[in-house]
Amino acid sequence: MSETTKVVEGDKTKDGTFDQVKRFVARNGALLGLVLLCVVLALATPAFLTGPNILNVGIQAATVAILAFGQTFVIVSAGIDLSVGSVAAVSSMLVAYTGASMGLPGWFTILVGLLAGAVFGALSGIANAYLKLPSFIATLAMMSVARGLTLVISDGRPISTSGMVNFFGTTIVGVPVPIVMMLIMGLIAAVILNFTSAGRSMYAVGGNMEASRLSGINVHRTQIMVFLLSGVFAAVAGLVIAGRLHSAQPQAATGYEMDAIASVVIGGASLSGGKGKVSGTFIGAILLAVIRNGLNILNVSSFWQQVVIGLVIAFAVSFDTLRRKEDAH
């Protein structure tokens, strides 16, 4: 074997190893970032790895994670849902109102909230599928409608919630219910995406809508379904918020839609659709919670926290853009 051949083979081996490492980092960047961040915070402050603080991180991540699980359906299908925060607020407000002002039993008020989330989500899906409104515009309009109805129902004031709703803010055998709900909703989302024909349709529609239509997939039904699911998950997040606060707040979950979208993108989903995993979304939500928690422990101003989160979101979207360009080549 000639020296030239050896060199070429050696270069191929190096290139192959480098490509493997690059692919591993691209696929597991969020997890690696989370581990690195936890190590840095553990070294910076001994309070970070204490049991109570870890549970606190889980509680902080729970609401955003539940919203983000619902958002994953939409982004995988090449859409975006800006209304999830407002839908969470109006759903929880309807739960509180039907319980406090109408005297309905707790279990029924919870069903009302879940149904409200489904209706708001379905309306966004119908506007996107049949009225041909871009998902950005359809959900932006729904965000305003839902938030406005929240203020109308409450007259701008908090409404106390019943005992059954407050259960969502308690603990079970030492484990906070918000964390339990986060894990349950994550499992449900993973099953839908990975083990059902509906999940396969979401990936197909997000990857190539026209090809999906020609292959017999009901694209309109899939579009409505992903927004309906996003609305239901938002309603569950609203229950968790109301349970923690023992009341429905008219300004609850304001701005949470951005954290939900960021969690999905940080977790490896593509804004162009067809790609995304619930496990990645979960890691993205935990990463954002760890950042906020760590900055709080280090006494960093809340104003600077917003700057840091904004930079993380910008980095995640930029990384997604570069990743798509590389995939195209």
From TrEMBL:
Transmembrane regions listed in the UniProt entry: 30-50, 57-76, 82-100, 107-127, 133-153, 165-193, 224-242, 303-322
Record has Electron transport as a keyword: no
CDD domains, alphabetized: TM_PBP1_transp_AraH_like
Pfam family, one: BPD_transp_2
Membrane topology: Multi-pass membrane protein
Subcellular location as annotated: Cell membrane
Signal is among the record's keywords: no
Organism the protein comes from: Bifidobacterium mongoliense DSM 21395
GO MF term (any one): transmembrane transporter activity
Biological classification of the source: Bacteria, Bacillati, Actinomycetota, Actinomycetes, Bifidobacteriales
One Gene Ontology CC term in the entry: plasma membrane
UniProt-listed InterPro entries: ABC_transp_permease
Keywords: Cell inner membrane, Cell membrane, Membrane, Transmembrane, Transmembrane helix, Transport
Descriptive protein name: Monosaccharide ABC transporter membrane protein
